[in-house]
Amino acid sequence: MVFEEPIEKWSGAVVSVTIGATAADGGTRSYAITLGGSTTLPFLQFEGEMPNRPIVAMEVLDHEPLDWPDVLTEPFADVISKPGEWAAKCVREYGAEMICLKLESTHPDLGDKGPDEAEKAVKEVLNAVDVPLVIWGCDVDEKDNIVLPRCSQAAAGERCLIGTAKEDNYKTLVASCMADAHALIAESPLDINIAKQVNVLVSEMGFPLDRIVMYPTTGGLGYGIEYAYSIQERGRLAALTGDKMMSPPVVCQVGQEAWRAKEAKATADEVPQWGPAELRGPMWEAMTAVTLLQAGSDLLLMRHPQAVAMVKRTISALVGKK
Amino acid sequence: MIIIGERINGMFKAVNQAIQERDKSAIQDLALKQLAEGADMLDINVGTAAADPPEAMAWLVKTVREVTDAPLSIDNPNLNTMKAGLDACSGAKMINSTTGQEEALDTFIGLAKEHNASVVALCIDEKGVPVDVDGRCEIAMRIVAKAMEFDLPVEDLYIDPIVLPVKADQTGPGKVLESIKQFAVLADPAPHIVVGLSNLSQGAVDRKLINRTFLAMAIGAGLDAAILDPLDTELMDALIAAEMLMNRAIYSDSFLKAYRQR
Question: Which pTM value belongs to this model?
């Protein structure tokens, strides 16, 4: 009796989304990155193709972070109040494949900066690095609706990834990203039904499916990761069984969520039995990332250089060095 | 759920007229409309009134092929007309259908292999339609065995448990549901299970209600393909709701629309 390998045949695939425009495409990036495209479950390359490996973007805030622990600010000490230089250091020294600029200072309670300052920050980062760019608002709808369109215009032609569109606030961002040819992040609150609905709503406005990246919300290790994992996994299975509205690639806020945890932030003095902070925080972040890679994550937004290095090594090992 | 649109059938007056007059646009319009409402495959049937069935079938197939690459289900009991349809059909195609008799299976599964086509096999043999679940399973097993003999991939095999008018025998639908459950464990992976619904409500009132209720029940029992009218909104809505209830489609508030665009 011949042994038949139990290979799964999937009828669907994850959509491929390209971020970044080179000179040939009217932009100034030195390369474009394609997310997604997989025709199999994460890393199971004996069953299908994984044409694009998961990508690590490093997060840069548009102002000096207010509550990052020392172990996290230390790698960026000299540049942390200048987004352009901070981004350049991430690319030059820490291996960032993309940069995610978080417009945190535009949040009404965290600086309440306006579209002018946001535009300035976007331009500063675009000039400082030539990698593809993610632009993330402050998560307050009314503010994002004024700030993000300006940033979208300022970055027109660079094919950025801009976030986020939500079930009850998507039209403004969709209009901007359509006009300025960017991709957008479709956000849902750990609810797979809403995740699907947001993709349906955005598509209904005529926005192409191959310019959407899903953010199903990330739970850090110990703080909701299982729930995030199971939603991502279920969504990935739906994509592979042909559900077009679940087939965009997925982005995870690994840095933001992992570093919320006391286990990542606490100093060795505060909790001596938890071991040295320089290892603990980066490991917490790396573990969050590596776990979510298994569920189907195409873009990881990360903070600590050591975590970035660990995760990039892990990704290389899982896809086989190229 | 694999949805096979049944509207391109010469038994419908408008379609028959279009075939007589060789009116391409009417046929192509019908093809595109069915696909827009969620059809995965299109059944192509010249009906009984065509003057030269093989020629009409070839014309019908080519006409539809001009506007879509979707698999076409060549629907005719006559071997020559079937062959004409298969020969005229580029791309994915299905033979609709063969009975479960040995010779018929040899002919049609052989033809399917030749054309790289999938095939619908009916649970009917020389004794007619089986009276019970066991009888249907026996024929189904023979069909699966024959497919294996010919090396026809199981994903190209569609078994129809045969739905008879409920008015003729009200124990019938229950037997079909039980048969569907048992077909699903005939092989691993299992063959597709398909039904045509219109027979069920023959002679009854509230035909559409009866048909769509049974469709939902059959989906619960394991049906994964159906020959039906995708332009019947209530029928499609019931199908989509049943798929969602069986966790085969993720719910979203636009779930009815999203499924049609899947």
Answer: 0.91
**Amino acid letter, A271:** V
Using the beta-carbon criterion (under 8 Å), do A200 and B258 form an inter-chain contact? yes
* Residue B257 to residue A234, Cβ atoms within 8 A: no
**CA A277, chain centre distance (Å):** 25
Of A9, A193, A201, the CB nearest to B251: A193
Q: What are the distances in angstroms from CA A305 to CA A74, A187, A302?
A: 10, 26, 8
Look at chain A and report how many structural domains it folds into.
Answer: 1
At A212-261, the pLDDT tens digits run: 999 999 999 889 999 999 999 999 999 999 999 999 999 999 999 999 99
Query: What CATH number does the domain containing B146 carry?
Result: 3.20.20.20
Tell me what ipTM this predicted complex has. Answer: 0.86
- H-run or E-run covering A221: none
- How far does the CA of residue A3 sit from the closest CA of chain B (Å)? 14
Q: What are A153-184's pLDDT values in tens digits?
A: 999 999 999 999 999 999 999 999 999 999 99
B chain contacts of residue A201, beta-carbon cutoff 8 Å: 254
**Which pLDDT tens digit goes with each residue over A258-304?**
999 999 999 999 999 999 999 999 999 999 999 999 999 999 999 99
CATH number at residue A81: 3.20.20.20
Signed CA dihedral, A67, A68, A70, A75: sign only: negative
Structure-token pair, residue A127? 């000039």
Domain span including residue A207: 16-316
Q: Which residues of A touch B (CB under 8 A)?
A: 9, 192-197, 200-201, 204, 234-235, 238, 242-246
| Chain B residue set in contact with A, beta carbons under 8 Å | 155, 249-254, 257-258, 261-262
- Which residue has 């490996």 as its token pair? A53
